[in-house]
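Quick one: co-fold with NAP.
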Amino acid sequence: MKETLKGKVALVTGASSGIGEATARALASRGAAVALAARSEERLGFLVREISAAGGPALAVKTDVADEDSARGAVERTVGEFGALDILVNNAGLGLSGRVAELRPEDLRYVFDVNLLGPLNCVQAALPHMERGGRIINVSSVVGKRAIPKVGGYCATKFALNALSEALRVEVADRGITVTSVYPGTTQTAFRENSRRTKDEKRGWRPGGVTPEKVAEKISAAAESGGRDVYVTLPDRIFVAGATLAPGLFDRVLRRWARD
Ligand SMILES: NC(=O)c1ccc[n+]([C@@H]2O[C@H](COP(=O)([O-])OP(=O)(O)OC[C@H]3O[C@@H](n4cnc5c(N)ncnc54)[C@H](OP(=O)(O)O)[C@@H]3O)[C@@H](O)[C@H]2O)c1
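Sure, here it is.
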């Protein structure tokens, strides 16, 4: 692997599992020093040992991104340990299933706290340290571009994240900071098991999905060269383009899904 990120410092949130864990490995293999943030200190510790054993600088920072002080602490420890912050990957997040009519406001508030306020907290803490430019990468979802039934609350958090990303991209462009939105489709992680549920929703059909390593490759490419909107697969791109061009048709197709 070419060390294209040698000398760069990255902070990855949600690095204890799934896409974040794979992203931390991928960035480290490209030569970046990586700070790993999540609540599960033990899992972060395993990954730090693995990356360090392969010769990469790595640091575990126990973090709850929904807590402003904790997010600021993660950024400050990263800068304190590695002297800079060049790449922020806002990946930490969780799902919420349930029909809109049945969603509990406290669940929706919590998922907004993690999926929207979390990235906001990290961005606000990171920006003062990105004097030499940088890359902010926000992990959204294809369902942040076209909401689907029975996960409307989760979709709303990702639509809101996209809005922040779009405004921020323009606001920081003159500082040499790029803002990338990544839109994965189904990815083979513990995401579904970790999602909040409104009722005991049936586990409906889902596409087989891609490996977290495939998403991590796309995130790493964005860490190297920026980019605006990043899709992981062609079907994801087609889903979003089709839903934008023919929203009524997609409504009709999705009604079947809403029935079960
Ligand atoms: N898997 C999919 O199908 C899929 C598709 C599209 C988008 N996404 C998005 O991809 C991102 C990563 O999800 P994943 O699939 O890798 O799921 P995952 O395996 O459940 O990982 C979620 C990560 O977020 C962390 N996290 C959750 N709440 C946190 C908090 N309050 N503070 C800090 N870290 C927190 C978890 O760590 P701790 O529990 O240790 O804190 C874990 O490391 C999410 O933003 C998700 O919305 C996933």
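If it helps, The chain is about 50% helix and 15% strand.
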